[in-house]
Every structure is written in C-alpha cells, then in structure tokens.
Amino acid sequence: MRIAIIVIDGVIANNAGHIMQKEISEKQMHWTLQIALETVIEGSGKALRTLEQRGYLILLLTSRSERMRAAMLEWLYTNQVTPLRRLEMKPDGELSAKEWKAQRVGELAREYGASHILLVEDKQTHRDEMLVRNPKLSIAAYTSLDATIAAPF
C-alpha cells in the first residue's frame, strides 16, 4: 500500500501568525477562532485529489493538540480539504512535535503495511528527523504539495 502523510501546517493551512497552543493556554474558543481564521494554501485540495487518484491513501498529520480536534475537523470540512481518510493529532505529552511526527510516520507505515510513503512536511528539521528515525522505510519527502504533483510516480 502507498500512503501519503501530509503535514497540515505550512502545507495545507497557511497559519502565518499562528498562536502556538502553549501560548493560548486552555481557551478552546480561542483555538476555534484562530483555526477558523487560517486560510488554505492554494492548490492543496487539487493536489490531494491528484495523489488519491494516483493510488495514495491520504493521512493528515499535525502536531496540534488532540484537544483541538473538533475545531480542526470543522476547518477541514469548511475549507473542503478532501480527501481525508485520517487525521493524526499530537497527544499532550513529553515528545516534541518533531519527535512525535517522526515516531508517527513509522507507526503509520507499519499499521498500513506501506511499501511506499510520500511525505510532505515544510520544515526541513522535521523532515530530516522523520528520515533518520525511519531508515528502513521507502520515503519520498517533499516540502510542498506542488512538488509531489511533478514527481514521476
């Protein structure tokens, strides 16, 4: 099976000026408002549909807290970000966003029995960590959805 693991922030969602969860304390309404104000990066929906047509199962990944799930799902629905098969959100814990993402990539690959992973992550340090922690996986890593469409597979 081929899976596409797509990071939301900076790849699908333009979250310039995003307030990090540590700074917003525990105000769910504030999270909802902040997420609602984010915009979709142009062409991301079309790129996701193209990847699905190429046989990839689309999995979205974000290091946003699991407590933000309802607001995040509402944003995805409102902005017609499809296809969505699964939304992975970071549980509260001690792992950094970079460590958690790298760990989840390996776990998702095993769970789906993935023979090939297409990974889209805009942060170089996070991509590097994912590749280093998962050396046995066949991963094609990109910085944007646009780059995946030009890929030959």
Main β sheet profile: 5 strands, parallel
CATH architecture: 3-Layer(aba) Sandwich
User: How many domains make up the 3D coordinates?
Assistant: 1
- Tell me what portion of residues adopts beta-strand conformation: 15-25%
* Structural classification: alpha/beta
| First-last Cα distance | 14 Å
Give the helix tally.
6
The percentage helix is 40-55%
Q: Tell me, briefly, the overall form.
A: globular
Strand tally, please?
7
Order of helices and strands: EEHEHEHEHEHEH
CATH topology: Rossmann fold
Strands of the widest sheet, in order across it, are: 5-4-1-6-7
Low-confidence stretches: 19-29
Overall mean pLDDT stands at 84
- For this structure, what is the CATH homologous superfamily? HAD superfamily/HAD-like
Specify Rg, calculated over alpha carbons.
15 Å
Indicate the CATH class. Answer: Alpha Beta
In short:
This protein has helices spanning 28-37, 44-53, 69-78, 97-112, 124-133, 145-150, and strands at residues 2-7, 13-14, 39-40, 56-65, 86-90, 116-120, 139-142. By secondary structure, it is of the alpha/beta class.
Key structural traits:
single chain; 6 helices; two-stranded antiparallel ribbon; globular; Rossmann fold; alpha/beta; 153 residues; five-stranded parallel beta sheet
What report would you give on this structure?
This protein has 153 residues and is of the alpha/beta class. It has one domain: 3-Layer(aba) Sandwich (Rossmann fold). Helices cover 41% and strands 22% of the residues. The protein has helices spanning 28-37, 44-53, 69-78, 97-112, 124-133, 145-150; strands at 2-7, 13-14, 39-40, 56-65, 86-90, 116-120, 139-142. Strand 6 (116-120), helix 5 and strand 7 form a beta-alpha-beta unit. Helix 1 runs parallel beside helix 3. The longest helix is centred in the C-terminal third of the chain and has 16 residues, at 97-112. Mean pLDDT is 84; it is low at 19-29.
